[in-house]
Amino acid sequence: xxxxxxxALLPSTLPAMLQVGPNPSATDTxxxxxELVNRPPxxxxxxxxxxxxxxxLSECLDxxxxxxxxxxxxxxxxxxxxxxxxRVIANHCLGLAATELGLWDxxxxxxxxxxDETPPKELSTRARFGTMAGNAALGGGDAEAAVTLxxxxxxxxxxxxxxxxxxxxxxxxxxxxxxxxxxxxxILALSDATRLxxxxxxxWLLTATLFRRLxxxxxxxxxxxxxxxxxxxxxxIGLEAGVIAVLSGREDAARQSWESVIATQPDSLAAQxxxxxxxxxxxxxxxxxxx
Length: 291
Prior knowledge:
The protein is an all-alpha fold. It folds into 2 domains: 197 residues, Serine Threonine Protein Phosphatase 5, Tetratricopeptide repeat (Alpha Horseshoe), CATH 1.25.40.10; 92 residues, Tetratricopeptide repeat domain (Serine Threonine Protein Phosphatase 5, Tetratricopeptide repeat), CATH 1.25.40. Helix content is 65%, strand content 0%. The chain is elongated, with a radius of gyration of 21 Å.
């Protein structure tokens, strides 16, 4: 699992060390849940004032990359012996550890407990935990429950006046709807996300991917162009742009997109995929050997 890029700090009574925020999937992976752990490298994290609660959370989070099983056990113990904010914190780390271990039901239960035990006025915090619970449900194959959880998370984010959190929940709800084979409902969810966060490339990339799957290539082209304007060096966008181009009969544009992916990140998985696409196309007409 790769480390996600988006981090957020929980406000008010919960320690600032809590950091969450599921990310939408990369190109052509709609419906496949990403990891839920969203913790930047320790040297880049914003340090909270030292206190026993934040110190315990920091130690628990530090265990996740190397020993998630131990973090899982410690969080279970702490959850059973604390109350209030400390219990919320324990459930948070428990959910992240369960995610690392692929224990999706445990993760979902822990994130839901963290959400439900968060004070009602902490709507943005509840939205974050609700989104993580929805992703855990999707990870466990329960897309219907994921949609319900993500709808509630989106509603909490809206009440908290957080367009960013609302957009995240909408993106993940779209993935769950795709898993339920409801692409047109997913398009509406993605429309919410791009309306709320028009300068985030991820929403436009997923929109382009889904339009392409629906054979709406003109709409897909418009969305991928917007994604490329926002993130011109994103290799996933380059891959998808090439796929849309070749399906639209623009082979030269497809080659150019995939060659740019290889030039940008030659050793990446995306570059490997791009090379495979180019091999399927074969050499350019002027490069073809003479019979």
